[in-house]
Amino acid sequence: MRIWVDADATPVAIKDIIFRAAERKQVLTTLVANRMLRVPASTFLRAVQVPSGFDVADAYIVEQVAADDLVVTADIPLAAAVIDKGALALNPRGELYSQANIRESLSMRNFMESLRSSGVQTSGPAVFGQADKQAFARQLDRLLAGLPG
């Protein structure tokens, strides 16, 4: 298993949790973004900068991901694409996307996007808080529990 992080919009607190988990479980972890990222010195952590552009980081992750890898992303279309390749997708709030729930999430996202594009004001996501951070850490630990380390 490798961990891939859609790093452009991932909260710093979540990156810190991922860094610690990657070291503890010795899992190769790659952060992908269209800007330079700093990661702690480690044989298990690396950052990849992709060119600027719409969904360039997403396309890179989809191209590189393998079955049973884990992708951390809040981007529902990216989550759907990696699930189709047999990978796992976890959002920064601790929700694990699966074949069972990704289509519904994608439909809701598309519906909300069509509302916004027609001028309807929507509330957007809730503020990221401590409960979200804890839910993510628990879910990540659960997913990595079977790995040696």
Task: Summarize the SSE layout with pairings.
Elements lengths: L2 E4 L5 H14 L3 E5 L11 E5 L6 H9 L5 E3 L3 H9 L3 E3 L5 E2 L4 H16 L12 H15 L5
Parallel strand pairs: 1-2, 1-4, 2-3, 4-5
Antiparallel strand pairs: 5-6
Helix pairs in contact: 1-5, 3-4
Can you offer a commentary on this structure?
The structure is a single chain. This protein is of the alpha/beta class and 149 residues long. Helix content is 42%, strand content 15%. The protein has 5 helices and 6 strands, in the order E-H-E-E-H-E-H-E-E-H-H. The protein is globular, with a radius of gyration of 15 Å.
Q: How far is the N terminus from the C terminus?
A: 13 Å
Helix and strand composition category: alpha/beta
The total of helices stands at 5
Strand proportion: 5-15%
Q: What does the main sheet amount to?
A: 6 strands, mixed
Shape: globular
Order the strands across the largest sheet as they lie in space.
3-2-1-4-5-6
How many beta-strand runs? 6
- Helical residue percent band: 40-55%
Q: Give the low-confidence spans.
A: none
Q: What value does the Rg take, in angstroms?
A: 15 Å
What is the average of the pLDDT values? 89
Note the run of SSEs as H and E.
Answer: EHEEHEHEEHH
